[in-house]
Amino acid sequence: MFKNLVASAVFAGVAVGVIAAALQFWLVTPLLLEGELYETGARVHFSTDGSTQSEAGHPALFTEPMRDLMTVGFNMVAFTGFALFLAVGFALSERGGHMVTARKGLIWGMAGFIAVQLAPAIGLPPELPGTVAADVELRQIWWICTVLVTAVGLGLIAFGPTLAGVGGAVLIALPHLIGAPHLDTYFGVAAPELAAHFATASLGTSAATWVLLGLFTATLWVKFKDA
Amino acid sequence: MNKTKTATLNATHATDMSLVSILGAAALGLVLLFAAGFAQASVMHDTAHDQRHAMAFPCH
Q1: Residues 6+ away with beta carbon under 8 Å from A136
Q2: How far apart are CA A125 and CA A123, in angstroms?
Q3: Is residue A163 part of a domain?
Q4: I need a labelling partner for A79 at 20 to 30 A (CA). Which of A25, A69, A193, A215 fits?
């Protein structure tokens, strides 16, 4: 059992880690590098001469091979971690009599995206480097709690009786009723168009990767179990 | 009677083992995600930087 859990998670996590990195290099990294121009002051938005305009365009990609390699490596680590939790979810749902298939894996992946990316992004949008925000520990606590209660809430909706589903919806709403930690000042380091585009690109690429993660992990889970 | 008892015991044992596996896999997942997303040591932070931003982990 442990071998099946780990094997399906590692193979899926490594494969999806590579795909995630490729999608990020294509759609997210150019915006991230452009954001760093504002973080370092190489570019200034709303500069002191009163101009509200700043030049658009990102610096050259792939100039730091080590940095790009680390992005691939840490994507593999993170998605293997997420895949382990998906596999744990598969094992628990099968104990409850709900068998997992590759197609159901797609739904698990979507649920993972909602719990880990979309729900926390409602309160804490994906941030460009250099964004000034509330204390990191407070944000991490809110982020972790939101991921946990959203995952539990989705589980109750998917597998519980009707009343438990209502409870699940309340759980999902709870962190947003409490509210994410925010500052009482805007700093606007980077251009707002760039920050908005970064947030949507981050969410869009992770939606695609999470769906693939669900599909791959479930496909391997079914394969290893039958072997 | 005895056979049934043994079967039940075996089933209970198998259930316990699979629960241990499930808990073990979850613990391993937690360690990996902590390393990728939350470890604050500056070496970890710098190497994981771009991936953390892309995945929207609150990292600094």
Answers
A1: B40, B58, B59, B60
A2: 6
A3: no
A4: A193
CA distances from A196 to A18, A167, A191 (A): 25, 33, 9
CA distances from A121 to A127, A181, A203, B24, B56 (A): 10, 12, 8, 29, 8
DSSP A59: P
Q: How far apart are CA A44 and CA A52, in angstroms?
A: 10
**Chain B interface includes A30 (CB < 8 A):** no
Task: Give the gap in angstroms from C-alpha A107 to the nearest C-alpha of chain B.
Answer: 20
Other C-beta atoms closer than 10 Å to the C-beta of A74 total 26
Identify whether A157 is part of a domain.
no
- Domain total for chain B? 1
The complex scores an ipTM of 0.88
**Tokens found for residue A82:** 């997420």
Nearest to A6 among B20, B25, B50 (CB): B25
Q: Is A152 among the domain residues?
A: no
Number of folded domains in chain A?
Answer: 1
What is the chain A residue with the closest CA to B30?
A81
Quickly list DSSP for A112-169: HHIIIIIHHHHHS----TT---S-HHHHHHHHHHHHHHHHHHHHHHHHS-HHHHHHHH
Check: CB of residue A93 under 8 Å from CB of residue A111.
no
**pLDDT by 10s per residue, chain A, length 227:** 899 999 999 999 999 999 999 999 999 999 999 999 999 988 888 776 777 788 899 999 999 999 999 999 999 999 999 999 999 999 999 999 999 999 999 999 999 999 999 999 999 999 999 899 999 999 999 999 999 999 999 999 999 999 999 999 999 999 999 999 999 999 888 999 999 999 999 999 999 999 999 999 999 999 998 87
Range of the structural domain that residue B19 is part of: 2-55
DSSP A28: I
* Closest residue in chain B to residue A33, using alpha carbons only: B50
